[in-house]
Amino acid sequence: MSTFCGRMREYSEISIDRFDGGNLLSSVFFLSHCHRDHMTGLNYRSFAKRLQAGNNIYLYMSDVSKVLLLGDNTYSFHHLEPYIKTLQIKRPSTITIPCNTVSGKPKLVSVTLLPAGHCPGSVMFLFEGNEGTVLYTGDFRWEKDKAASLSHLHNELGIKPIKSLYIDTTFCVPNALHFPSRYQCVEVTVQLVKEWLSHSKSHFVYIASPMNYGHEHLQVEIFKHTNEPIHTSDWKYSIYTQIQDLAIAYTTDPSARIHACVSKLLVLRPSTMWFTMSTICSEKLKEEPTKSSDPHRVCYSLHSSYSEIKNFVSYLNPEEVFPNVIPAQEPNAMLVRIKIT
């Protein structure tokens, strides 16, 4: 659960993932992904009025996040569409920051969206300008050494000097020191699904996800390895068909063998918290149910592990680090900062 207030120390006219209170004084807004704890205020009338009040005040996000936002089944965000601008991933864009005073001049800042690996459309924001180079991760899952592979974090001298890093510290706890790689988690899950489906044509699979979006990568990989389209609701199907990487994997046919609610059912629950309670979290990839009615739990994380966070921070070596999340076991942000630096 994000505890980020919405504004960075640098580029104070920008607000990210918070759209209420003092953030309404900002003149540029960014949305990293479409999970509720990063959308506070987005549906408020006061935010719509802020966008309508001035010239050139926009809400920036990725193409996929725009699709998800406008397709939301709880709130209607279509009134925001005239003020939404999408940015291409891994392509630096120059953004104008309008001045809040009559006599002031607008500022320019370069913004690069980096894939965050959290859920469809999720991105980090790399800001570069007169106030320094700043990275806001939003929620992210990067495995060890991922940062070394991205040219946008480097220049001709090596790693770009990062003034401040605003980082997702959801699993900055000892119990989440290591997570298996995405590849390992997918491999174990696919094998489990294949074995179950091989029993008979009347054996089916249901993937139980606690959130609207997040496990699509796992679901698409299951489809690719089984060639079995995944049944989903008409609402989600209408969204997935607008996203190239997802469209092929889903169907509204209720007779599909994956995500069909019938008697002989394998229920898969992708989970992270369940496995962090185990002392052998780094080795355990699945948990067999104790009762036939319980789900098969498979390890699959949408956030980086404690060791992955430390590896990321160590590699970038920023001047300042600001945790975006205070884990439940920690009393304050200062102790989280000490743990990762």
Characterize the structure shown.
GO terms for molecular function: 5'-3' DNA exonuclease activity; damaged DNA binding; endonuclease activity. Belongs to the DNA repair metallo-beta-lactamase (DRMBL) family. This is Protein artemis. The two termini are 21 Å apart. A six-stranded mixed beta sheet has the order 5-6-7-8-11-18. Strands 1-2-3-4 form a four-stranded parallel beta sheet. The chain has 341 residues and is an alpha/beta fold. A hairpin with a 2-residue loop joins strand 9 and strand 10. The protein is 23% helix and 21% strand.
**Strand/helix succession:** EEHEHEEEEEEEEHEHEHHEEHEEHEH
The fourth-level CATH homologous superfamily of the largest domain is Ribonuclease Z/Hydroxyacylglutathione hydrolase-like
Q: What count of helical segments does DSSP give?
A: 9
Distance between the termini: 21 Å
Instruction: State Rg.
Output: 21 Å
Mean pLDDT: 87
Tertiary shape:
globular
List unreliable stretches of 5+ residues: none
Helix content percent band: 10-25%
Write the layout of secondary structure elements.
Elements: E1 14-16, E2 28-30, H1 45-53, E3 59-61, H2 63-70, E4 84-86, E5 93-97, E6 107-115, E7 123-129, E8 132-136, E9 154-155, E10 158-159, E11 164-167, H3 182-197, E12 204-207, H4 216-226, E13 230-231, H5 234-240, H6 244-247, E14 250-251, E15 265-271, H7 273-276, E16 286-287, E17 296-299, H8 306-316, E18 320-323, H9 333-340
Parallel strand pairs: 1-2, 2-3, 3-4, 8-11, 11-18, 12-15, 13-14, 15-17
Antiparallel strand pairs: 5-6, 6-7, 7-8, 9-10, 16-17
